[in-house]
Input
Amino acid sequence: MTTQLPVVCVPRLDLRAPDVIDAVAAASLIADPSRAAILAMLADGPVCVCEMAAALGARENNVSNHLARLRDAGLVRASRHEANARFLYYERDEAAVAAARAALADVLR
Amino acid sequence: MTTQLPVVCVPRLDLRAPDVIDAVAAASLIADPSRAAILAMLADGPVCVCEMAAALGARENNVSNHLARLRDAGLVRASRHEANARFLYYERDEAAVAAARAALADVLR
DNA sequence: GGAACATCTCAGTGACGACTGTGATGTTCA
DNA sequence: TGAACATCACAGTCGTCACTGAGATGTTCC
Output
């Protein structure tokens, strides 16, 4: 609880707002419960769209919309199942996830 | 790039959606550029409302609204300047910030 | 006490985003 | 080939949230 208040109470006009666009972009994606759960589920390996929809209790086109946003952000990518190409499996791009984690950690550093 | 697709393509209905409410709450706060910048600025110590407003190029009541949300979440607290109590200085609650950081890191684990 | 300042609270407005429904695309199987 | 399935893309609707403006509270200084 050591609050270091400045001795002189003159507004510091040299204070610059830090660059937070990457953190905001990452946070905006996690700010939705469905997308946050999707990202957490994908931590354990690829998951099918229908599996995620069932786990979330959401419709598949709804999940698809969220996956499209995560895809556009580069956080996940899709590939069809080898044995049954009807199923589309999503997996995380760990490099992009690490970058998002770093951007968020920088704000809360 | 070792995508471990299941050999048998049967939807895993046992898949449960993980608990992400804490991460979503934290992300929702960071998802706004003003709040993200505020949290980042406060990492270096207490800052006055007028200083944050000047750095952000925002109006003071706007900044005050964002600070109220961060306050309600327990991430920041306010105290008046000892020498000049007209100025209200905000500082982070490092325990709460650490908890938010942990919740976010858990989703992107 | 009164004026100027710093900040808060609240209500109103506008914009962005989440969910839905529908139709389209690609895949499997009979 | 046709039916069923898995998923996507897009447009419409509705709710939430950020910014604004105005008024209220607390502080300092004359």
Remarks:
- The longest strand of chain B covers residues 76-80.
- Chain B has five helices and three strands.
- The two ends of chain B are 17 Å apart (CA to CA).
